[in-house]
Amino acid sequence: MPVDRNLREKEAVSQSFAYVSILGAGPAGLYAATLLRKGFPDASVVVYERNPQRATFGFGVVFSERALDFMRSDVPELLDLIRPDMEQWSDMQLSLPTLVVKFDNGLLPFNAPPFG
Predict the structure, then answer these.
(1) Contact predicate 105/64, CB 8 Å
(2) pLDDT tens digit string along 71-107?
(3) What's the pLDDT score for residue 101?
C-alpha cells in the first residue's frame, strides 16, 4: 500500500517543529508561539524573555486593522484575550522636523508628501 506523500510531508514538517525556542515575548514572539502551538500541538514551544513580567518601559504596540483581521482569522482566542486592554485611536499624526502628516486607521492620506 503506497504511503500518502502529503502525510509524509506533514510528518516531516511536524518533526522539524518538535522543539522551538522563541527569543522575546513581545507581540511577534507571542503570536508566533501561539500559531506554532495551534499548528503543531505536539511541539515543545518555549518563549524566553529577558525583561520582568509586565515590563513595558512606557511604549506600546500598534496593530493596524489588517493585523487585527489576521489575528481574528488565525487565533481569535488571542484577540479576545488582548482586546480588553487595547486602546484605539481613529486619528494619528507623524511629526517630523519639517512636516506633520495626519492619517486615520494607519493609512496615509493620498496627498501625503513623499518621505525622505
Answers:
(1) yes
(2) 899 989 888 888 887 777 667 777 888 888 877 654 5
(3) 80
- Strand runs labelled E in 1-116: 19-23, 44-48, 91-96, 99-104
pTM: 0.58
Residue 4: inside a domain, yes or no? no
Percent helix, percent strand, percent coil in the chain, to nearest 5: 40, 20, 40
Beta pairing, strands 19-23 & 44-48: parallel
Q: Which amino acid is at 29?
A: G
Is the CB of residue 59 less than 8 Å from the CB of residue 69? no
Q: Do 76 and 105 sit in the same domain of this protein? A: yes
For residue 73, the enclosing domain spans: 62-111
Looking at residue 14, its pLDDT comes to 64
